[in-house]
Amino acid sequence: MRARPRSPRALVSAVALAVVLGGCGVPTSGRPHAISKSNLPAVPVPPTTTTPNSDDVEVTIVLLNAVTNAPAPVHRFVALKADNLRTVLSDLLSGPQPGLTSAIPPTTALIGVSPNPLGTPGVVPSEPVIVNLSSDFTEINGPDVVLAVEQLVFTVACDLTPSVRVLFEVEGAPQDVPIATGTSISQPVTSADYLSAGATLDCAVSLGQ
After folding, report:
1. 79 FRET partner, CA 20 to 30 A, in 20, 34, 59, 163?
2. CB neighbours of 145 closer than 8 A, spacing ≥ 6?
3. Strand runs labelled E in the chain
4. pLDDT 10s digit of each residue in the chain, 209 long?
5. Is 155 within 8 Å of 88 (Cβ atoms)?
């Protein structure tokens, strides 16, 4: 029995399909092929900014790398609260974005912060900035406490200046906090207490790397 010849339309369709598949990187030889690593799609990178609304303000908060726990400054756009520093710290306490993490307990609330300058870069308040947090902040222990305090201090420093001094309160009562060595102190702390010797705070790039 003679094979029925293919029509011109069928031949054109077959050629067109082969061209499309070849252009998409799909092999047309009928045999399986290993895909080169260079042809694999790129892994999505967690965003470091959020999309602003017309009345939002830009803030810099310090989260943590989900794998290494290294500090990770993030620029976000949020609605302005009563003042700038309260806006920044409230956004930090709202939690991390995908790909990052935070050592601060998610139920921690900001009770108050003072003195609260307008956030002019390079201006050092004459008095330490007092950050008053809810009792949920004390639910963590061990190395997480150092990381949580570090996040708060770095976030205040990025909003004001690296040399700003920070004191902590819990429910209005003075709270000792650990520095990078693990030693708890009652005195004001600065970003230098959580950086390695000779390192400086850079809020524009990932820290600790």
Report:
1. 163
2. 103, 177, 178
3. 56-65, 71-79, 100-101, 110-114, 129-133, 166-170, 173-174, 177-178, 184-185
4. 444 444 444 444 444 444 444 444 444 445 544 444 444 444 444 444 455 565 688 889 999 999 999 999 998 888 876 677 888 999 999 999 888 999 999 999 999 998 765 545 555 678 899 999 999 999 999 999 999 999 999 999 998 889 999 999 999 999 999 999 999 999 999 999 999 888 888 887 545 43
5. yes
DSSP 59-82: EEEEEEETTT--EEEEEEEEE--S
CA neighbor of 59 nearest in space, from 127, 159, 148: 159
Helix (H/G/I), strand (E/B), else coil: 106: coil
Token pair belonging to 17: 């399909």
Give 38's DSSP letter: G
Cα distances (angstroms) measured from residue 18 to each of 33, 71, 94: 16, 50, 52
How many whole angstroms separate alpha carbon 96 and alpha carbon 73? 11
Instruction: Tell me the chain's radius of gyration from C-alpha atoms.
Output: 27
From the list 128, 124, 137, 147, the residue with the least C-alpha distance to 194 is 147
